[in-house]
Fold this sequence. Notes:
By secondary structure, the protein is an alpha/beta fold. The chain is about 30% helix and about 30% strand. The protein has a six-stranded mixed beta sheet with strand order 5-6-7-3-8-9, sandwiched between helices. Helix 4 (about 130-140) runs parallel beside helix 5. The longest helix has 15 residues, at about 160-175. The model has no long low-confidence stretch (mean pLDDT about 90).
Amino acid sequence: MSVLTIRNLTKKYGKITALDNLNLDIEAGNIYGLLGPNGSGKTTTLGIILGILSKNEGSYEWFDGQYGDKHRMHIGAILETPNFYPYLNAVDNLEIVARIKNVKQSNFDDILEQVNLAHRKTSKFSSYSLGMKQRLAIAATLIGDPKVLIFDEPTNGLDPQGIAEVREVLTRVAGNGNTVIMASHLLDEVEKICSHVAIIKNGVLRKTGEVGALLNNDAQVILAAEDLLKLENMLLALPYVRNVVKKDKYIECNIPREQNIGSLNAKAFQENILLTHLVSKKQSLEDEFLEITKEL
């Protein structure tokens, strides 16, 4: 089932085109990351599909039109910084959210358990750390049992522990079968959480698909030896070695992921080349992102 269909979505602010003919299809059950640097159009996209911002051109449709103009009842979202009453505790704040959403909700303890806040449910919001505040905001999106959850930069401003806690919560929430749409400029977080990704830069969709499918099958290898020139010539002569680049004190190259890195060590030994460094590095989403979004 298609949860969201976007066609030729365009948004302009005067002479600036914030979003340029965006096309996306998001299927139910996916954890979809909108990935791009700040100012790429991610938040603009979320603002339009949530009905907060107007569009100049194009269209979008939620749930194949199944719920008509009531589709917002099936969406939970966090945009910008979450706001709660600082002098109220978690349960009281969630009760207010439920009233605003016009939802009869009583399982606040269960919701707080999902976001690891059950032990602080009676503490005032003002006493929460930034990570705890973000997790309460995630809890608020779960009220009403929505089918789709939308998060805009959910780990922004958090310390490493807070990022890890929010990541763990998002992964658990997504594991419940919800469709999750998450905008982020943090490649590592998207790679660890999302099943699918859309890479956006300057309002233009550069690439989209499953995270694994976007990563090519090559492994990057970093080598060093006393005689770098001899090592470079050896690598250039091997048919399965690609993209040989000589740096100041080492050489980078790519080999097929199924190729045993030990074959390079054995070949170097045959050529009387003593390797002083040999490391294989799995390609990351960051590598692919930089390659896709680099300036032409």
